[in-house]
TrEMBL record:
InterPro entries: 3-OHacyl-CoA_DH_NAD-bd, 3HC_DH_C, 6-PGluconate_DH-like_C_sf, ClpP/crotonase-like_dom_sf, Enoyl-CoA_hydra/iso, NAD(P)-bd_dom_sf. It comes from Silvibacterium bohemicum. One of its GO terms (molecular function) is (3S)-3-hydroxyacyl-CoA dehydrogenase (NAD+) activity. It comes from the Bacteria. This is 3-hydroxyacyl-CoA dehydrogenase. Residues 18-201 form the 3-hydroxyacyl-CoA dehydrogenase NAD binding domain. Keywords: Fatty acid metabolism, Lipid degradation, Lipid metabolism, NAD, Oxidoreductase.
Amino acid sequence: MSPSASPSVGSTPLLRRAAVLGAGAMGSRIAAHLANAGVPVLLLDIVPPGNAASRSSIAVSAIAALLKAKPAAFYDAASAALITPGNFEDDLERLKDCDWVIEAVVEDLDIKQALIGKIAPHLHPQAIVTTNTSGLPVASIAAKATPEFRRRWFGTHFFNPPRYMRLVEVIPTPESDAYAVASIATFADRRLGKAIVFARDTPNFIANRIGVFSMLTAVRLMQEQDLNIEDVDALTGSIIGWPRTGTFRLADMVGIDVLAHVARNFAASQGHDAAAIKLPDFIAAMLERRWLGDKTGQGFYRKDPAIADPKKNRLALDWRTLEYREAARPKFPSIEMAKNAESLPERLRLVLGGDTKKDKAAAFLFPLLTSIWNYAADVLPEIADSPADIDRAMRTGFNWEFGPFEMWDAAGVAATVERQRADGAHISTQAETLLASGNSSWYRDQPYRDQPEEPQVFDTATKSYRAVSLPSGVATAASFRSANKVVRKNPGCSLLDIGEGIALLELHSKKNAIGDDIVSMITQTLNPSSEHVRNFRGFVIGGDAGDFSVGANLMQLLLVIQEGEWDEVEQAIRAFQRMTSAIKFCPRPVVSAPFGMCLGGGTEISLHAARRHPHAELYMGLVEAGVGLVPGGGGTKEMALHAIDAARASVGIDPAAAPLRFALSADLQDALRQRFETVAMAKVSTSAAEARGLDLLAPSDPIAMNRQRLLLDARETAIALAEGGFTAPVPRTVPVPGEAVLPTLKLGVHLMRKAEYISDHDVKVATHIANILCGGSLTPGSLVSEQYLLDLEREAFLSLCGERKTQERIAYTLQTGKPLRN
């Protein structure tokens, strides 16, 4: 079954229980991510030799390691309870209850074949079995199984760590049942949040094949040009749209033994490229010495325990001598200049346009990238159905910003090929076919993921462009912009018609920092008298960027503070509060769709929405205390209201009927203390599930697992609210505890200071937060309005802006991206 015949992704299948065979680093993390999706998982491994305390101790230990893993394997530690440990001797009978069984044992064909023979009698007749092999031929693993087993057998290659890496390569065999393949592909897409790429059953499939060729080509060029490991990492990081780890730091993280294993798969394949992907002698020596990277404490880099300073204790390997020395911080003039370019295509053209005889960066990058691009084109007919499949695999499997064909388009296919011809370099026949057809780019007009309706990519077989099929339910703001759906826009925010009567307020300032542009656009759009409120039945706030929002524009704020324009500062705070109030009291439902970093003001936007529909990977928090401020856009006010609502549900007292009794209740005190800790300690969630625990998301807020589906998922939530008879809330009047709780919170702050956990300025900030949450120094049970709480926020924010230590914190964070504890 070829990728061109791959089944379409349809509705999510029912999958009640899964099993993972192999509790190693990869298998256990696959099990953890299935648990993240709410799927009960059976995790099996061998019975350990000797007198182990438990016959299932390998799986038990793996689960314990998952709970301590960094980065975290689980969205919520409670999900670990969904994993049941077992072993291959005592627990195979349990497989009869599993709908999907994933083989993830050691990469040894004999071991895998023996295991398949062992489990086959215990599977229920409809169970789907897949392998997570990273490079062995999928069909060969099941070659000795029955035809019925082979019908339900294919490859599902996850990338490590499975929670964070989006790619799953699905590798059908000629015997694989199309419905079974489609079922698992759909489940992995919708429930596990994965980008699905169908690959052919060839050595190392798609991403590892291109990725390892890229890494080993970089190694070869490093040796030819006598560069250092740090030089190559500086040249192969974010400047060309690759992860900032570069080549060798990434290899240390993945494992040099894994890199070697993939390279050996090429050699064993005897394919036309086997000789091109060969491990150099110095890496072979590293393997002999067990210098495998992070897992063994040293690889291309290691830390010097004798040096405490983390900026100086990193040692780099000298590949010539296999000795470690202090890591250098290389600087290339052309790279430093290219960093000022706003987009990757601009950076690529700058770094590749240099004179390769004079510019070291160009001398390395031009042959590196053109080799990768031509290699990808050479192997295209063998490994994938389309350049789009290869690009998608590299973006989601190796975190490249652009795939190789997209990069080639950005740099200019015709221009780079002309330079290669002049150098006598190899040019792929696929590229020659493209240019001979009279075309000069792999994609029609622009990279396919930004196309509005039917993206098109060049097909070298037909010598014409053809549509790239995208799963239903996937869309971007860019696709609606390309389809001329922009209603209005300014530099920081756009209003887009995304269909079904729903509009998107797309944030697109630098890092989505919230400044005047965003504030004015949201406020004007959601005003009850706005034509947009009349024309649309609901709104979504979101976008295409890597992060939802890093919060308010601190640079803008600091400049105004330093100029002493206090009236302007106050007006800005009032404007921000009017924006969040417009979100909350809009006559139409507003759904926030946060993702990535959603900090400070970004969290305040979300807290005021009628519903939040976040992506599972969410780093959300009211972090203003870290820069010496309080949440001033209604965030502290909303946390106070959340505490009141939580206490009312718990204590069973109607605050309106018995305000004093309610204000004095222990339930209210506990609810306020929990939210005080969240705000004063600037807690940030590590997932959407954890954000629920911090009361930044409600239990009723749905969570999208697949980032690509977030926009349309959030649109469906807005539609459901609109069709469900949405009624906007009205401003509330609530009883506050005042002096019944405020002294208790202040005492906690005092004790923290006495123990030297916090600074004097932290005390000042925390006291302001406590004051707002409690409604100030009022008589317990006093009734106050939401506006009163907003006024307390604004006064505290203004007061702290005048503090020198707050200004120092803001400046330090702007400079370093880190908080300052002064």
